[in-house]
Amino acid sequence: MRRVVFNQKGGVGKSSIAVNLAAISAARGVRTLVVDLDPQCNSTHYLLGDEANAPEQDIRDFFEQTLSFQLKPTAPQTYVHPTPFDNLALIPSHPDLGDLQSKLESKHKIYKLREALETLLEEYDAIYIDTPPAFNFFTLSALCAADRCLIPFDCDDFARQALYSLMNNVLETRADHNDQLEVEGIVVNQYQPRASLPQRIVAELLAESLPVLNTRIPASVKMKESHTAARPLIQLAPKHPLTAAFVSLYDELHPS
């Protein structure tokens, strides 16, 4: 399973959702890998904390080596790093990743990530890909490499307007580049059940037959605490209601 967490809008919780679902997967004994494609490096800092700047090989190095012809390219495993959590590994990002974008586009390297992840499926049963808040080369690479797409959504009218463009981009990618890609669902994040606006927006999305998942992720300061501690919720606060919501989301995505 290769799942990409994608939204062109920033601040909707892509990294939080990717990392916490991956951490639950790992806690259940599944060999799990997170791939951080965002130059902001949020997933990298979330999982590595103070060690986030330590890795010698990262996703930028992976893409850079694809630009130089090599008879024997560096194995994808070279870019994978352990995290402090059992069964959970990471390909970290780099702040300068975006500098490579124009070169990668001109050299048509859009399928290199998919090739690498297909190799890594021999060692990992679940791969989560965190993406930048833009529809660019790295996001398209992730969509080409994944078989499932999860869309975070915060209950905001601007986010709703952007959602239709986002869905079109995913469907176009499926048609042109990856016929295995499926929109797994829309995750309603930072949900406030007592506020009228979130309730109205979610009801309208459902009325339009958009694939809104049943689980709602509530707003909570515990998420910021989890980021600061560099510990996913299942490790930091396994009995907290926010953790329970992520567990419910994971179970919804993996029905027994």
Report on the architecture of this protein:
By secondary structure, the chain is an alpha/beta fold. It has one domain: P-loop containing nucleotide triphosphate hydrolases (Rossmann fold), CATH 3.40.50.300. The protein has helices at 14-27, 42-48, 59-66, 101-106, 112-120, 137-145, 157-176, 196-207, 222-229, 233-236, 241-253; strands at residues 2-5, 32-36, 81-82, 88-91, 126-130, 148-154, 182-191, 212-218. The chain has an eight-stranded mixed sheet, sandwiched between helices. The longest helix has 20 residues, at 157-176. It starts with a strand and ends with a helix. The mean pLDDT is 92.
Report the end-to-end length measured between terminal Cα atoms.
Answer: 15 Å
Largest sheet: 8 strands, mixed
**Principal-axis shape:** globular
CATH architecture: 3-Layer(aba) Sandwich
**Could you say which structural class the secondary elements and strand pairing correspond to?**
alpha/beta
CATH class: Alpha Beta
Using brief descriptors, characterize the structure shown.
8 strands, Rossmann fold, 256 residues, alpha/beta
Quick recap:
The chain has eleven helices and eight strands.
SSE blueprint:
Blueprint: E1 2-5, H1 14-27, E2 32-36, H2 42-48, H3 59-66, E3 81-82, E4 88-91, H4 101-106, H5 112-120, E5 126-130, H6 137-145, E6 148-154, H7 157-176, E7 182-191, H8 196-207, E8 212-218, H9 222-229, H10 233-236, H11 241-253
Parallel strand pairs: 1-5, 1-6, 2-4, 2-5, 6-7, 7-8
Antiparallel strand pairs: 3-4
Helix pairs in contact: 1-2, 1-11, 5-6
